[in-house]
Amino acid sequence: MPFNIALSGLTASSTELDIIANNIANAQTTGFKGSRAEFADVYAAGAKSLNTGATGDGVRLADTAQQFKQGNITSTNSNLDLAISGDGFFTLKGADGYVYSRNGAFSVDKVGDVVSSTGRALQVYPPLATGGFNTGALTNLNLQTSQSQPNATATGTVIVNLPANAAAPAAAPFDPTNAQTYTNSTTTAVYDSLGNQLNATFYFIKTATPNQWQLALTIDGTQVGAPQALQFSSTGALTVPAGGSAAFAPYNPTNGANPLNLTFDFSKTTQYGSSFGVNSITQDGYATGQLSNVAIDNTGVVSVVFSNGRSTQLGQLAIGNFPNPQGLRQLGDTAWSETFASGNVVLGQAASAGFGQIQSGALEQSNVDLTTQLVDMITAQRGFQANAQMITTADQITQTIINIR
Predict the structure, then answer these.
(1) End-to-end CA, the chain
(2) Exposed site from 17, 53, 188, 378, fewest CB < 10 Å?
(3) What burial class does residue 303 get, using C-beta atoms within 10 Å of its C-beta: 0-12 exposed, 13-18 middle, 19+ buried?
């Protein structure tokens, strides 16, 4: 009997050393969660029922309990490195279905999907056309949005000051190639439907009538419609056109783009003093943009920024959590799958109730404390040695009995 009891102790200590060795081996593994051995004593069924003070049958491994405490978070230089500060797991999809991980070291594969080192795709809630995200569906986070579509200029605002004491030009009629036919000019960029930049030049022509001007427009040197009137009050405020909105005739680009129909707001243009000044010119068009940056906020919203200054949201990270994370099945590669013991996955958004926040440009390190593991290793070693000594002692006793004459 002592042999079997001591053997169970040896097996238990050996198993504990295996668990400790695995923890130590993964002390530098991103997103790794350490485990600990939990043991239970063993009694024969009859001894349990009779409660007669039986000595017991040894020890058994009751559970290899995973420890999901937070690991240290360290900064990196990649926006696609993600860490969860708090509860939850990244949701990944691969050939084996959905799995869950705390390892946020992601990269982009050949089709633009954001994937883990094992090729599983990071899952997000897709954006809705009306804003927000569809939390009832999951999709791969894909960065194959290499370009931002251009937007043709339609409206804008021009704020300039025209000199109140200006004289009418020396020559007429207006000719954009002859500076003697206009008083002042200023140029801004506009864009056609193909994303091409065009130069739009506004010409201001003082008339012989006080407080009256004419406004002309050229695009890439071509005059757009006839000049139209600008009129100011005796205090220098614009009165014509009514409301300050000047609509120009359509301009047909020669490159196959759609006609440009431009309307600019001049309501804040003034006629003060003796100098011409350009305060502000804005317009709503923009060129094609190349993907320049990926940004992920603490709620997991993924946005891409383009070289033309535009940005768009690609989705929101789907974070999973479980009633009993310790019941998750370990798959290796710092991934877990759902089991009956873990309970059904609960999906949600980062920084909401029950879910931690996302940190972009950071990774969660292993939660293994090497000092604790080394102390546990010494304890397990002593247990192994003690059980081995028990076998030696039992052998000596048996030998003594055998040698009785």
Answers:
(1) 23
(2) 53
(3) middle
One pLDDT digit (tens) per residue for the chain, 405 residues: 677 887 887 888 889 999 999 999 999 999 999 999 998 988 877 555 555 566 788 888 899 999 999 999 999 999 999 999 999 999 999 998 999 999 999 999 999 999 999 999 999 999 998 999 999 999 999 987 667 889 999 999 999 999 999 999 999 999 999 999 999 999 999 999 999 999 999 999 999 999 999 999 999 999 999 999 999 999 999 999 999 999 999 999 999 999 999 999 999 999 999 899 999 999 999 999 888 889 999 999 999 988 888 889 999 999 999 999 999 999 999 999 999 999 999 999 999 999 999 999 999 999 999 999 999 999 988 988 887 887 888 778 778 878 876
Beta bridge partners of 201: 187, 218
How many angstroms separate the CA atoms of 122 and 380, rounded?
Answer: 40
Q: Residue 386, SS3?
A: helix
Kindly report whether the global pTM for this prediction surpasses the value 0.85: no
List all residues 6 or more positions away from 291 whose beta carbon is below 8 Å from its beta carbon.
143, 145, 146, 147, 148, 304, 305, 306, 307
Question: Which CA distances in Å does 261 have to 9, 57, 79, 244?
Answer: 87, 91, 41, 17
Q: Based on C-alpha coordinates, what's the Rg of the chain?
A: 38
Q: Are strands 197-206 and 184-191 parallel, antiparallel or unpaired?
A: antiparallel
Q: Which two tokens stand for residue 318?
A: 């789907």
d(Cα 326, Cα 255) in Å, to the nearest integer?
A: 64
> What's the fold here for domain 155-283?
Tick-borne Encephalitis virus Glycoprotein; domain 1 (2.60.98)
| Joined tokens for residue 219 | 């695009």
* Tokens (6 digits) for 367: 């939660």
The secondary structure of 261-328 as a DSSP string is: --EEE-TT-EE-SS--EEEEEEES-B--EEEEEEEE-TT-EEEEEETTS-EEEEEEE-EEE-S-GGGP
Domain ranges for the chain, please list them. Answer: 2-69+367-402, 74-144+305-364, 155-283
φ, ψ at 371 (rounded to 5°): -60, -45
Q: Which of 375, 170, 372, 159 lies closest to 278 in space, CA to CA?
A: 159
β-pair partners for 237? 270
Q: Which two tokens stand for residue 184?
A: 């002042």
